[in-house]
């Protein structure tokens, strides 16, 4: 575990869940979370259990179908105009989820453990449109990065059915801390740069293993939350990497908290931890390309302008580490690391270079970091956009999103032509 104070930070978020407020330039945003809870006995459904092969789980879910980390979700296609979900008892109280039909904007609702929520009915936006996406598709993501849901069962109208969606052709994994998880952005996971990256590339399945103070925890299904300690004590489920296809690209952004001297993480300890994560990724997914993102801090005002806080976080350590990974000597005999057994071993098999440095300097500016030292929605969008372009230029991935990458409620504009 790298970070100490970040755990305190997550504890704080836990306390503030019930009264979170979204601020726009200091003003409170009006939110309208739908009330979707229904009495199931008033409906006639065809019901699928959580283990139905038609349900594609995105991100990490444990053997009880409990979600972990940031923006985990489910998706499937369906017939009829009804989708309801019964949430299991292990669902966090009043957790916020986003969901949508096809590529339309997200709708939000707080869900209740043990309750059934009617998420799609004929009046849901998109329900009356039969194309171009056909049959209808449904996607749900947990927006609160610190909380989770348990899928109990999924229902469609009586006589209708779920249809499995094929995996998309590309896969991204983002490994990060609170800055990737979406802490302090409007809709947390669904406003994070990690979501923007995955959704914005298009035709890409994405998984965001981001949580304050992640590290060897990447090898496990659950994050490092209080919720996980209650669920598992000292025995978290190891993540079964065979459950999902290997990621093609893994983006790693960890350490912004750690370079804070208050956390007392030494530069060598940081470099060692980051090295092990990359060696862990290479062990699990030998063909994955790894992008290490440099870290960023906040800005301060000095006189009549703004400047980045110095130092910019383990710069030399990151550069040295990337150089080491790309040295001929290393490529000849790379090391893989297993975070469960905590064992490193040499593969004895030459590999092609796979570690890249993405320098974030100059992307975000003073106004892109909120008062709690995390990217604002705009900051997150900037990071995601630059990263997409980097991936396009480095790996030749075309940007294939055709409209449905939606950062909910970021539609700010001026409607006055003569303003
Ligand atoms: C819904 O979730 C949001 C985000 O966690 C929270 O701020 C809000 O208080 C919740 N609303 C209800 C009615 O529980
Ligand atoms: C749900 O509906 C059933 C049948 O109409 C009724 O018996 C039951 O009391 C209802 N439950 C709640 C919590 O309203
Ligand atoms: C799925 O779960 C149901 C009960 O929830 C069980 O009866 C069934 O055997 C399970 N199927 C598989 C394939 O695990
Ligand atoms: C910081 O870490 C070092 C090495 O682990 C330790 O010796 C030192 O006491 C720590 N300082 C504080 C303030 O915790
Ligand atoms: C990123 O670029 C800036 C500006 O060129 C440079 O000062 C900094 O050292 C670079 N950071 C890394 C980690 O290479």
UniProtKB/TrEMBL annotation:
UniProt KW keywords: Signal
GO terms of molecular function: carboxylic ester hydrolase activity
Coiled coil (residue ranges): none
SGNH hydrolase-type esterase domain segment(s): 174-327
InterPro entries: CtCE2-like_dom, PCW_deacetylase/CE, SGNH_hydro, SGNH_hydro_sf
The UniProt record lists the keyword NAD: no
A Pfam family recorded for this sequence: Lipase_GDSL_2
Domain of life the protein comes from: Eukaryota
Lineage: Eukaryota, Fungi, Dikarya, Ascomycota, Pezizomycotina
Protein name: Lipase, GDSL-like protein
Signal sequence residues: 1-20
């Amino acid at each position: 575990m790298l970070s100490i104070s970040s755990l305190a930070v997550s504890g704080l978020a836990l306390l503030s869940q019930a009264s979170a407020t979204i601020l726009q330039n200091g003003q409170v945003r009006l939110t309208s979370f739908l009330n979707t809870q229904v009495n199931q006995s008033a409906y006639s459904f065809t019901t699928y259990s959580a283990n139905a092969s038609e349900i594609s789980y995105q991100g990490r879910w444990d053997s009880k179908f409990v979600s972990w980390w940031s923006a985990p979700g489910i998706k499937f296609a369906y017939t009829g105009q009804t989708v309801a979900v019964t949430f299991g008892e292990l669902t966090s109280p009043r957790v916020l989820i986003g969901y949508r039909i096809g590529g339309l904007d997200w709708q939000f609702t707080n869900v209740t453990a043990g309750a059934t929520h009617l998420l799609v009915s004929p009046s849901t936006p998109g329900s009356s449109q039969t194309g171009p996406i056909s049959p209808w598709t449904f996607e749900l993501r947990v927006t609160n990065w610190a909380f989770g849901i348990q899928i109990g069962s999924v229902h469609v109208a009586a006589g209708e059915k779920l249809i499995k969606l094929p995996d998309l052709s590309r896969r991204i994994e983002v490994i990060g801390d609170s800055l990737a998880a979406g802490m302090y952005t409007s809709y947390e996971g669904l406003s994070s740069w990690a979501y923007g990256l995955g959704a914005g590339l298009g035709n890409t399945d994405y998984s965001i293993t981001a949580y304050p103070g992640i590290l060897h925890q990447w090898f496990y299904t659950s994050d490092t939350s209080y919720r996980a300690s209650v669920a598992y004590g000292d025995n978290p489920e190891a993540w079964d990497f065979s459950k999902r296809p290997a990621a093609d690209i893994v983006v790693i952004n960890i350490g912004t908290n750690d370079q804070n001297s208050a956390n007392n993480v030494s530069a060598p300890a940081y470099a060692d931890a980051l090295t092990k994560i990359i060696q862990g990724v290479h062990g699990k997914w030998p063909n994955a390309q790894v992008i290490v993102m440099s870290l960023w801090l906040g800005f301060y005002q000095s006189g009549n302008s703004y400047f980045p806080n110095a130092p910019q976080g383990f710069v030399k350590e990151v550069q040295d580490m990337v150089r080491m990974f790309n040295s001929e000597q290393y490529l000849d005999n790379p090391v893989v690391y297993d975070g469960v057994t905590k064992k490193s071993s040499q593969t004895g098999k030459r590999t092609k270079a796979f570690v890249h440095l993405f320098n974030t300097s100059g992307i975000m500016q003073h106004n892109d970091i909120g008062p709690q030292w995390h990217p604002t929605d705009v900051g997150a969008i900037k990071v995601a956009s630059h990263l997409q372009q980097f991936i396009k230029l480095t790996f030749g991935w075309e940007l294939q999103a055709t409209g449905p990458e939606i950062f909910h409620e970021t539609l700010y504009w001026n409607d006055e032509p003569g303003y």
